[in-house]
Write a structure and sequence with these properties.
Elements: E1 2-7, E2 11-16, E3 24-28, E4 33-36, H1 41-54, E5 61-64
Parallel strand pairs: 2-4
Antiparallel strand pairs: 1-2, 3-4, 3-5
């Protein structure tokens, strides 16, 4: 899933998400929320750890569970 959305719960958001993967990084900013992951679950975790270690993210980012899919 790729693009700009206006979700009922998340509000304005950007999604860069492989729906087949259960872990998703959620980053909340003042303007919108970003959801992102990778086809490789380990790469998603590595991105999260890199962002956390660099100080680029703080408590406003987390790895969430499986995203609800609207069909």
């Amino acid at each position: 899933m790729l693009g700009k959305f206006d979700g009922a719960e998340s509000g304005k958001c950007r999604m860069y998400v492989w729906l087949e993967q259960s872990e998703v990084i959620q980053i909340k900013t003042k303007k919108y929320t970003v959801f992102m992951n990778n086809k490789d679950k380990d790469q998603t975790t590595a991105w999260y750890e890199q962002l956390k270690k660099s100080g680029a993210i703080k408590a406003s980012a987390e790895i969430t569970g499986k995203m609800d899919r609207q069909k």
